[in-house]
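Quick start: load a record and inspect it. Here is Cell division protein DivIB:
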Amino acid sequence: MPNAQIPVLKKNRTKKRTSRKIAVLLILLFIVLLAVLFFRSSLSRVSEIRFDGNVFSTREQLLNRSGLAVGDQYFGVSSSDISEKLREIQSIQQVTVDKQFPGVISVHIKEFATVAYELQSDGSLRAILANGSSVGVGSSGIAVEKPILTKWKSNDPYKTKLCDALSRIPGEWTADISEIIPAPIPSFPDRIKMYTRSQFEVITTVSLLSSKISYLNQVLETEAPGLITMLEADSYVPFKPDTSEDGQEKDTTQ
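Running the structure step on this input writes:
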């Protein structure tokens, strides 16, 4: 009996391939339609912008600098671009942008710490930050435990170094310092003079302040008002001599 050959059903295979192509095209068209509808809907827009941690910059200033606005495309907002733009503001140290779908942009701001204040010619005070920048106090209020810088030139390089030194010293160690003025001499160009609320006068340098602050607090806590010198050697001399029974003036040197 001759072998019977079954013909290949080419037409059926062609129909199946055509059906698959049509299905894929329909799915792609459906996806495109959904994308178009989504990007035209309010779900794809920025609906709320939140700022926290800002003291020296107003909401309006932050919006203007960042370029953010309600109604912007949510997926068009670049967290890195916003962070970079806001860090151009002198008072801002760090920025973290948190995008919360749908439509919420939260911007967390960390500002440089206030280390001192500076009295202006019109009698107003400006806050001096850890990076040496000066900002208006406004409604943020004044921290009474911070010193006031007087007689400093705006371009004095030691002023920036002083602010950096103050930022690295615990606040309770500088709380008694009321005023800091420059007092340079040839041998110590960064020499400063400080006055305390407890009536002490202190002479030291910007470069030595961080390492000498512990001695300063030791004298403030145990001695009567006097002159404290913290240079190559540390010394203390009271303004009003405290005479003991043997008539010797009290004087401490470290």
